[in-house]
Amino acid sequence: MTTSPPLDSLRAACDAGREALRGEFHAHGDALATLAARTALADRTLASLTDMLFPSAAPRAVRYCLVALGGYGRSALFPCSDLDVLLLAADARSAEAVSGPGASLVRSLWDLGWRAAVTSRLLEECDRFEQENPEFTISLLDARYVAGDAALVAALRQKVLPALAARERTALVRSLAEMTRERHEKHGNTLFHLEPNLKDAPGGLRDFDVACWATAVRELARHRAWTAPESGWGGMLGDSAGAAADLAKAR
Q1: What domain count does the chain have?
Q2: Is there a single domain that holds both residue 37 and residue 145?
Q3: Residues 14 and 134 in one domain
Q4: What is the pLDDT of residues 15-69, one digit of tens each?
Q5: C-alpha span between 218 and 131 (Å, rounded)
């Protein structure tokens, strides 16, 4: 497959960035710094692709942005993790205008060596809780702006998600509980394994994420506000939980 010179240059930058991260990690062993740096590399890649692929002189009425979700949204992008991205459009006209560039974005990310998972939604669609796909709504709790119209992400976080949490709090918490029970059952409902899964087993990193999501839903529903989850857990519990999560990430 032939590529354009700008894309070739971006591929070289991505390869060089990954090689530098490997070198830094082997030299210092700082996993948390490596995760943050890998996230930053992905951010730069997406910003560059936005400049390349999306119309720079789009009509003022065409409004879109790229939003990091999941672990990428939490700035914890592991080497084998998917690059979860939301292509968020303000309305149907904007979505149609960026559908072609969006498809090119997916192909380009894979060509550049990223395991990309790009989802497209209208802003109004994010206000609906998808019973058959609760993972998407939950992933929005980690939404973080990357490129495009920043006002769309502000509307998502300050208006859409607080209203959704207030309206669907019970359903969201129930979905979190059901997914957690199913995940624990796959690991025998015990943390005592010879080789425990530090992410998905009971007491693993995903349980910390669930606690953060549940706290976010509670605070959004009650106060329409975003707060650091640990701040509502009490000093000792918050500190120890955060330290344990960092240790799991570092492993």
Answers
A1: 2
A2: yes
A3: yes
A4: 999 999 999 999 999 999 999 999 999 999 999 999 999 976 556 689 999 999 9
A5: 19
Q: Provide φ and ψ at 116, rounded to 5°.
A: -100, 140
Output 96-103 pairs: Cβ under 8 A, ≥24 positions apart: 97/55, 97/58, 97/59, 97/62, 97/64, 98/54, 98/62, 98/64, 101/53, 101/54, 101/55
Whether 56 and 124 share a structural domain: yes
Which of 142, 158, 174 is where one domain is finished? 158
pLDDT per position as a tens digit, 69-121 = 999 999 999 988 999 999 999 999 999 999 999 999 999 999 999 999 999 99
| 87, two tokens | 């292509």
What does each C-alpha distance from 172 to 43, 65, 141, 157, 219 come to in angstroms? 29, 25, 11, 16, 13
**Three-state DSSP class for 154?**
helix
Q: Is the pLDDT of residue 234 over 90?
A: no
Would the pLDDT of 236 be above 60?
Answer: no
Whether residues 40 and 123 fall in one domain: yes
CA pair distance 141, 143, nearest whole angstrom? 6
Contact in structure between 174 and 249 (CB atoms under 8 Å): no
Written as six digits, the tokens of 158 are 């300050």
Could you report the per-residue pLDDT of 131-173, keeping only the tens digit for each? 899 999 999 999 999 999 999 999 999 999 999 999 999 999 9
Question: How far is residue 45 CA from its own chain's centroid?
Answer: 15
Given a contact cutoff of 8 angstroms between Cβ atoms, the answer to whether 69 and 139 are in contact is: yes
| Residue 9, domain extent | 5-158
Rounded to whole angstroms, the Cα distance separating 175 from 179 reads 6
